[in-house]
Amino acid sequence: xxxxxLNEVPAFITKDTSEIRELLSYRNSAIVNQSLAEAVVMPGxxxxxxxxIRTEEIYYxxxxxxxxxxxxxxxxxxxxxxxxxxxxxxxxIWNIGDIPLKLLCCCSPCYxxxxxxxxxx
Length: 121
Hints:
This protein is mostly beta strands. The chain has strands spanning 11-13, 19-24, 35-41, 50-52, 56-63, 66-70, 73-77, 82-85, 91-95, 101-108, 116-118. It has one domain (12-118): Sandwich (Jelly Rolls). Strands 1-2-3-10-5-8 form a six-stranded antiparallel beta sheet, with no helix packed on it. A three-stranded antiparallel beta sheet has the order 7-6-9, with no helix packed on it. Strands 4-11 form a two-stranded antiparallel sheet.
């Protein structure tokens, strides 16, 4: 069994400029086919629009209030919302609230900078 605590894993900045703490992936565990991380987007900030070449991704909103765009479709999101993105789907998320927007990011295969293509200009 592997147990990782969010407060004990280091944060890093992804290619889309979000700050994440990777809880489980091949980089820090025996998990090899997926990754689980918490991302934080500060009030008034956003990620850069991007897509993943191979990775499908699920966002699960845990705190805050946001707006997400996936392949041109825009909607507001809040705690309890799950958003699925297939490989190749352009996506971007904004924090439109006054507290940090926190979301779990599940990636399969694991998140990699090299798999991320920035589409914002």
